[in-house]
Amino acid sequence: MDREELIKKYDVDVEKLEQEQLELAKKLEIKDKIDFSLADTFGAVDITFIQNKILVSIVVCKGLLENEDGKKECEVLDRAYFLDKVRFPYLAGFRAYRELPAMVEAFDKLSEKPDVIFVSAQGITHPRLGLASHFSLSVDVPVIGVANSIIDSEIKDEDILINGKKVGKVFTSKQESRPMYISPGNQISVDSAFKLCKDFINLPHKLPEPMHLAGKYGREVKKELKIETQ
User: Fold this and answer.
1) In what order do the strands lie in the sheet with 72-85?
2) Residue 208: which domain range?
3) pTM of the model
4) CA angle at 136 for the pair 135 and 139, rounded to the nearest 5°
5) 23-36: average pLDDT
6) Which of 70, 129, 188, 207 could form a disulfide with 211 if both were Cys (CB 3.0 to 4.6 A apart)?
7) What is the per-residue pLDDT across 140-164, written as a single tens digit (0 to 9) for each?
8) Which residue has the higher pLDDT, 116 or 177?
9) CB neighbours of 134 closer than 8 A, spacing ≥ 6?
10) Is residue 230, in this structure, part of any structural domain at all?
């Protein structure tokens, strides 16, 4: 089903949603809400689609520390998941309307709220309002967007620019892996978002360690619920 058919089937008012995104974007604060060098708890979200359902898994962990064996690991403090029916089609630029409700439900189930959250999505590199930004506005927690791609942007050295303004950084955590596009969602600066991503790399894992742990937890939940992806 192509884009126009999906819009018609789900009765999506694209212009209204675009305007809503632009209005919400005015509320973003791309500056550090706290001193992130003093942050204690770090969250990450994993999102999986299973047939006509969405599974959101969230973990909250401590910082990356060296254990007795000399390996680095994050202690998981809390985790939660939410499984729901998909209620909005996939339309490029409008991920939040498909994924955000389940993300908020999973977040609300946490007993331990994190100081900052990593999300596999765009932040302010989105032309209007990325999922990482929308999520931050919804839960009032600083969010870092870690995306696999970007659009309508210029890359100069490591910087991602939109209309000459730095909105993110390109980061390749391990050789021969695809780059990640790091941007603040809200309540954090570009430089702090980038630094936290770098600080949480635990090779051979490509992603920041909280994201790796969220993905691992998501796979455990799928196994527990005896559900399979297609």
Assistant:
1) 72-85, 53-66, 42-50, 116-119, 143-147, 180-186, 165-171, 159-162, 154-156
2) 3-225
3) 0.94
4) 85
5) 98
6) 207
7) 999 999 999 998 899 999 999 999 9
8) 116
9) 21, 24, 96, 100, 185
10) no
User: Structure tokens of 46?
Assistant: 């994993």
DSSP 3-state percent helix, strand, coil across the chain (nearest 5): 30, 30, 40
CATH number of the domain at 113, please: 3.30.2170.10
Strands (E), the chain: 42-50, 53-66, 72-85, 116-119, 143-147, 154-156, 159-162, 165-171, 180-186
In a domain, 160, yes or no: yes
Query: With contact defined as beta carbons under 8 Å apart, do 190 and 169 qualify?
Result: yes
Contact 146, 170 (CB under 8 A): no
Tokens 């990482």 correspond to: 132
Q: What is the largest CA-CA distance in the chain?
A: 58
| Residue 96 placed within a domain | yes
Q: Whole-angstrom Cα distance, residue 171 to residue 78?
A: 28
- 44 DSSP β-pair partners: 59, 118
